[in-house]
Amino acid sequence: MRQRISKMVHSGDYNDFVCTIDGFCVKFLRREIHRLGFPKSFSIIDEEDSKALARQTMEELGIKRTEKTVKEFLGQVAVEKSMNDYITTFMLPEVKWTDGMLKSPVANYIHRQMKTCSLDYDDLENFTNYILDRFEAARTWWQNQLNYIMVDEAQDCNLDNWQIIEKLSAGHGNLFIVGDPDQAIYEWRGAKPDRFVNFASDKDVVLDENYRSTPRILDVANSVISNNQNRIPKNLFTRKEEGKTVVHFHGKNEAEEMEWIITQIRGLLSSGADPSDIAILYRASFQSRAMEQSLLNAGLPYVIWGGTRFFERKEIKDAVSYLKVINDGQDDISFERIVNVPPRKLGKKFVDTLRDRADEDGRSLFDTLSRHLDLPSFDKPGARDFVSLIEDAREYSNGRLVSDLLDRVLDRSGLKRQLREDQDEDRLENIEELGQSIRLYESTRSEDDVTLSEYLQDIALYANQDIRRDTSTIRMMTIHQAKGLEFPYVFVIGMSEGIFPNMRSIREFKKNGEEEERRLMYVAVTRAEKALFLTESEGYNVASKMNKYPSRFLTEIKRNMFVTEGYVPEDLWRGTRNLMHVLDEETYRAGSQMLGGEDGFAAERDEYSNPFRVGDKVVHAVFGEGEVVGANKEFTTLEVRFADGATRHLRTDFLKPQDLPV
After folding, report:
1. Which of 28, 326, 543, 597 is least crowded, fewest Cβ atoms below 10 Å from its Cβ?
2. Is 611-657 in the same CATH topology as 311-461?
3. Nearest-CA neighbor of 127 among 116, 137, 138?
4. What is the rounded CA–CA span in Å between residue 411 and residue 425?
């Protein structure tokens, strides 16, 4: 923005207040924070620093991470800072600290900040508001400096932002806000789009002409967003030609969805499109896995925009490293990665000592550790637990599916528990997706090919394929990351209830959550310039632990505005319609169960989406005929005994009743 402004005005005619609100707060505090006894050289701690301070506080006060997570603790700190005058109470020079004060978790955390005169991101805005409220000289000086104030993306401002803006603009009254409440997608982190919607302006200018998308794409966007209540009514239009018809594809399974997308992309490329003209958008990062694998198998170049490729993500590398050490105790790289993950009090000094001994013995790190557990240097509870875990997993893996082995390791190692305690939903979803991908891998191969060694070799080939970052590539990203960008051709994939709209968002924020998800849909659609493709498929929803149904947003697009490829059974639409009316927390739970009650959707689920029961005869395309002998609670995974005597755990997607063709 600075560069664009500099090209429009004479050199030197623009100032350095082209910045974010947090950036302004830093400039403000460098000049004014001395009023509170802080040095101008105060430091700013980032999210990781805040987590480190939280862990230190929790450890000192004996707060167990099983009782309160770091995320919960920092949430408590944020609430305390937003609701109370903590600056006067804890952060001024005259405050006298006592042992009693330090027993308070929040006070203890703030005291650690004060030792280094550090501010976190919440403090930047809170301190700015505090000084503007209490020091008239500072307030007047800054009001006189800022004769005119323009705030861009104002729909994303939080309450503290609005307070700062209003105090600064009160001097001259020249405030110009710009934004689109239909693109307010950060309410979950404190944005207040209703402040924009209800803003009492002297004059409104509605910019409803769109210069990016075709009329057909805008029709879809308008059709969906019109269902929101908290907005300023507008209907986007453009003077462009009609353009290509918007296409919705419904696949019988995820593989069919991916295959269709690859076919469309190849068609676009053969027609002269550049790979960089194509964007693939998804609601949650775990959805990238299947698409990445399909693009790699097709030899199509891609890049994860603003993110990390699936098998490069920390939680995935940790899980796969466990499998590698179980499979081959010679893998020292994987051993070093996981020997202290989750923490077992086996730090760098322990590993360095072990490495020296391994060099002397000429053995791998794991072999050395397992042989020398009785030596004082290695006789640690964490070391014994780790060796026991690996040896148990090796014994368990004999004749077992890789997916079963992964489940056991994730549970017994504590990896999954650690992610739950950290409330890291994205990483948990990625781990679930890894398990789902292994089950898919197993279901499409003969039993002899599904060994741990074979699986690790296959994913190594997949994960190590060279992706050149300096070439023209297809862009993959979450919809949040796509905001502000545009592409000639856009695919919005995985449009299933529970995924998009996101079930957690609706469960936590009810109607407001649904409206924000709808705004995300609006953002996704309006990224497209020439052509828009919307895709989803039947199967199993990793995020919600239930079968998939088409997104409600597809039902909100008028039927004459798009075409559907692939047959969508009416019972799926019926399931979608039922889910659309379920917004309360008690009946729309994440993971543990489907909808409660004796009526409506629960009955339909029995009849349509899971027709199997114990004792049913089924057939699998690879394993042949079998009998259902067990299932998980939701009947989404079945235990099937086949004619060869083998029992396999399979998703319902891959099974048919014996009287139907496979």
Report:
1. 597
2. no
3. 138
4. 16
Query: Hey, what are 649's tokens?
Result: 């755990």
pLDDT given at position 442: 82
Which of 293-328 are b and which e, b meaning 16 or more Cβ less than 10 Å from the residue's Cβ? bbbbeeebbbbbbeeebbbebebbbbbbbbbbbbbe
CATH class of 611-657: mainly beta
Q: Whose CA is closest to 604, among 544, 531, 546?
A: 546
Give the pair of three-digit tokens for residue 42: 């105060």
Residue 221 CB: number of other CB atoms within 10 A?
Answer: 25
**Dihedral of CA 414/415/421/422: which sign?**
positive
Mean pLDDT of the chain: 84
pLDDT by residue (tens digit) across 267-301? 999 999 999 999 999 998 889 888 998 998 899 99
d(CA 582, CA 38): 51
pLDDT at residue 634 in the model: 44
DSSP 8-state symbol, 150: E
| Mean predicted confidence (pLDDT) in 216-228 | 96
Phi, psi of 577 (to 5 degrees): -65, -35
Asked if 80 contacts 86 with a C-beta cutoff of 8 angstroms, the reply is yes
What is the residue extent of each domain of the chain?
Answer: 246-309+468-607, 311-461, 611-657
Count CA within 13 A, CB hemisphere, residue 169.
Answer: 15
Highest mean pLDDT among 97-101, 448-452, 473-477, 595-599 belongs to 473-477
Print burial letters for 75-101: b (CB count within 10 Å at least 16), e (below 16).
eebbebbeeeebbeebbeeebeeeeee
Q: Is the peptide bond before 376 cis (omega within 30 degrees of 0)?
A: no
pLDDT digits (tens, 9 = 90+) for 543-586: 667 789 999 999 999 999 999 999 998 889 888 887 776 544 43
What CATH class has 246-309+468-607?
Answer: alpha beta
